[in-house]
Amino acid sequence: MSELAYKRTNVYEVADEKLMKEIFDYAEGYKTFIDEGKTEREACAYAVAMAKKHGYVPFEFGKKLKAGDKVYYDNRGKNLYLIKIGKGDVKKDGIRIIASHIDSPRLDLKQVPFYESDGVAFAKTHYYGGIRKYQWATIPLALHGTIALADGSTIDVKIGEDENDPVFCISDLLPHLAAKQNVKPLGEAIGGEDLNIWLGNIPFVAAENEKDKTVKENLLKILHEKYGVKEADFLCAELSLVPTYKAKDVGLDRGLIGAYGHDDRVCSYPAFTALFDEESDDKTVMVILADKEEIGSEGNTGMQCALFTDLIDEIAASFGTTSGAIRAKSMCLSADVNAGYDPNYPEVCEKMNSAYLSHGAGITKFTGARGKSGSNDANAEFVGYLRKLFDENGVIWQTGEMGKVDVGGGGTVAKYIANMNVDTIDIGVPVISMHSPFEVISKADLYENYLAFRAFIK
Ligand code: MN
Ligand code: MN
User: Fold this and answer.
1) Which of 21, 246, 387, 440 has its Cβ near the most Cβ atoms within 10 Å?
2) Distance 103 CA to ligand 2 centre (A)
3) Has residue 307 been placed in a domain?
């Protein structure tokens, strides 16, 4: 190939012994993070604890910020803003923003979840985000979340993660009796109201009333004994079913990681670790771990919330300028996963414009669907700026679209930030089996994203 032509770089092909060690060591820290942060609340708490260790203190509205300040804003325990005020001129340079999200597709318990049918106790769920429903049957599930009690206190629930915990599951038909289900379209084989969780099978035989000798009553008794809660308390709860298993290396060479919830904790982790590890103190940096990306970035913990601009207002006020002036000079990496090229399903991807596993951080200039609709489509000049920055800093990167034209599409938080007059582009880790209970990523891409974020905020 001539030196005029472009070719992607396989990280593992060019990595020396030192880089290989860095890639593999870094992956271990990430695995701990996703095992401990399976919901946005848990991921947020993990990052807050790390932030405190690195000297970050709670942000206070109205309190003037100054160079060297390190603050965090924990938004309702589900959305985190980490802000480091640089020694450089924020009026001239704006803010370097890295925006990732920490919510992942899952099954949420309904508000009135429990019922009994033919001697089995179940819980009703309402799925969250874009899932392929059939993938969630016959896998072990754990229950994570928070219950707000009538007295104003809250309790955190986590059942199914400890080695000795029971787990939960959704049943599916046996092949012997599945002839009719087998000929349904894949998307209809298991419906939304079929995602019912098996909770118990032993009736409350000690009940005084005959009518209370039910499995559901026994279940309520167990919940009351363990957590002191009644059925009505679940009206005020956020409880989710997520896969129980831990992150694992995939493949004999251990180059990949399989886990639940890579999307998008695989970009969140490099975002906040880059911030904590980067010692240069010139730039003002904001790292965002957003919630609700998987359902449109809505609500007061999602990226469309005014909190984003409110915090920039506070930075602006501290330095005698306006939010608009700062945003005009700011840049944002929308750190989100993209679709990795899967040789098992080549028909959905266009080979030249796909992100390949182990070929580095994946830049997605535009997302969207049907002619880029719903995409911010980053400016060429901004892509050019990043190209120079990454190349100068030895970051291995590639570009990739989400699939062939008109095959599908997707969106990220990028457009909401770009709409605020900030140069924004999507960059992230290519994922295989995205939104499934067991997504796969490359350790090399995880690390190259970390290096990219380091270079961006340096
Ligand atoms: Mn995502
Ligand atoms: Mn997603």
Assistant:
1) 440
2) 8
3) yes
Say what the pLDDT of residue 2 is. Answer: 83
Based on the fold, state whether residues 205 and 73 are members of the same structural domain: no
For residue 230, the model assigns a pLDDT of: 97
CA of 337 to the centre of ligand 2 (A): 7
- What the block records as the tokens of 60 is 């206070």
Those residues of the chain that have pLDDT short of 70 are none
Can you give the CATH number for the domain in which 334 is found?
3.40.630.10
| Residue 115 and residue 63 in one domain | no
Separation between Cα atoms, residue 233 and residue 126, nearest integer Å: 18
Residue 380: CB atoms within 10 A of its CB come to 9
The one-letter code for the residue type at 320 is: G
Question: Cα(337) to centroid of ligand 1, in Å?
Answer: 5
pLDDT in tens, 122-159: 999 999 999 999 999 999 999 999 999 999 999 999 99
Residue 246 DSSP label: P
pLDDT confidence of residue 378: 94
- Answer yes or no: do 97 and 120 share one domain: no
Determine if the pTM surpasses 0.85.
Answer: yes
Residue 74 within any structural domain of the chain = yes
Burial 311-321 (b: 16+ CB within 10 A, else e): bbbbbbebbee
User: What is the DSSP annotation of 93-105?
Assistant: H-EEEEEEE----
Question: How far is the CA of 426 from the CAs of 59, 118, 183, 281, in angstroms?
Answer: 27, 50, 39, 25
Identify whether residues 17 and 141 lie together within a single domain.
no
Cis peptide before 103 (omega within 30 of 0): no
Nearest listed ligand to the Cα of residue 289: 1
Does residue 375 sit in helix, strand or coil?
coil
Question: What's the CA-to-centroid distance between 104 and ligand 1, angstroms?
Answer: 8
Tell me the residue range of the domain where 361 lies.
11-104+260-457
